[in-house]
Structures are given as C-alpha cells and as structure tokens.
Backbone:
C-alpha cells in the first residue's frame, strides 16, 4: 500500500514539475522474477525514479538520514529498509531485513555506491553488500541506470531542479548460479563494468 501511495506521489509530482518518466529496456525484464536491483546514485531525484519503476514487490535499502525530511521522512521510513553505514549494528540489522525480504519472494533495491557519486566518473567504487547477498541467497542481479537524474536535480541542492526527460534503463540480468563467497570481487567487477559501459552509452564523461 505504501509503494502504491509513493507511485501516485511520484507520478503527480513529475507532472507538476514538468518531468517525463521514460523506461528503456535494453534486455527483456521479467516482472514476475525476483531480483536484487542495483543502480547508480547521483541525485535526490533518484528516489521518485525508483518509486516509478517498482512494477513488482520490492524493498529499497535507504540512508537513515532521509527520515529527517518533514512529511517525506515518514513515508520513507515506512517504505524502505533503513541503514546507517557508520553503525555496525544497524548494518547487520539491514542485511537481515534484506535477506528476509528475499526469503518472502520480495525483490530488493540497493545503491552499491552507498552515497552520491560526486566524481567526474560514471560510477564510484562499489561496496560488497549487494553482491555478497546475491551470492548467499542465489538471487540474480538486475542493473538499472538512472541516466538523467543529475540533470533534473543536481546534488548541489534543491534549487537545481530542471524539467525534462528522466530516463531509467534496464540492463541485462547478471546470474549468480554456481558462484560462492570467494567470487564477490569478480561479480562486483562484472556488474560495475556493465553499468559503467551502459552509462557511457547514454552520457558523455571526461576522458581519464
């Protein structure tokens, strides 16, 4: 019910501020299948984009700091699994909650960069968490690109809002069958490369 409310909010807000949501499927997506969704993270506008692509049961891993936002914070607390990365107890609790969601056939959504990418590169370095959970639960990974959120609302602040297209791109599924805990680094590198190459297809970045 909370996610349906969030979808209504996202759709209405996009209409009011002149943003058009667009989904691009580079590969077929099975909405009846369970996944660990991973996406790049670069803007507060990532949140409504995620809400609008939840076409199946899903729980999102979100930063605890967001609950302090008036009104939205209440909805955020009800809709996401909260994590405070500076606190080992809450990190462990969030991992257990994510695994519990998967056990109940609910997909999960994680930003493997952990926080906003404020570099000039397509992606920051990934944390291990999403990939460890994928291997331990044998759940395939579905990479998603948030292509235009940085243009719609820059992380510099809320006064950077700009109307326009907001594209979300579904990339190829990454299976984890046969992988074990020693393959975390390999899996993380594979997903990173797929997402990095995908972002470079849709945006321009400075040469290294």
Residues:
């Amino acid at each position: 019910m909370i996610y349906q409310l969030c979808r209504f909010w996202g759709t209405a807000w996009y209409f009011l501020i002149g943003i058009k949501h667009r989904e691009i499927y580079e590969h077929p997506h099975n909405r009846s299948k369970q996944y660990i969704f991973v996406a790049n993270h670069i803007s507060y506008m990532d949140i409504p984009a995620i809400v609008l692509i939840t076409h199946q049961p899903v729980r999102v891993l979100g930063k605890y700091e967001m609950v302090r936002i008036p009104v939205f914070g209440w909805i955020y607390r009800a809709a996401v699994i909260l994590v405070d990365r500076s606190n080992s107890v809450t990190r462990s609790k969030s991992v257990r909650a994510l695994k519990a969601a998967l056990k109940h056939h609910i997909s999960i959504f994680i930003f493997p960069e952990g926080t906003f990418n404020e570099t000039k590169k397509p992606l920051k370095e990934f944390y291990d968490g999403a990939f460890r959970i994928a291997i331990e639960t044998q759940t395939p990974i579905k990479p998603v690109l948030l292509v235009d959120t940085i243009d719609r609302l820059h992380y510099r602040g809320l006064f950077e809002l700009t109307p326009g297209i907001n594209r979300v791109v579904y990339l190829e599924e990454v299976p984890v069958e046969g992988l074990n805990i020693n393959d975390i680094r390999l899996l993380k590198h594979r997903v990173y490369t797929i997402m990095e190459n995908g972002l470079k297809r849709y945006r321009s970045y400075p040469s290294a």
Q: What stands out?
A: The radius of gyration is 16 Å. The CA atoms of residues 95 and 133 lie 8 Å apart. The domain at 2-202 is CATH 3.40.1130.10 (Glycerol-3-phosphate (1)-acyltransferase).
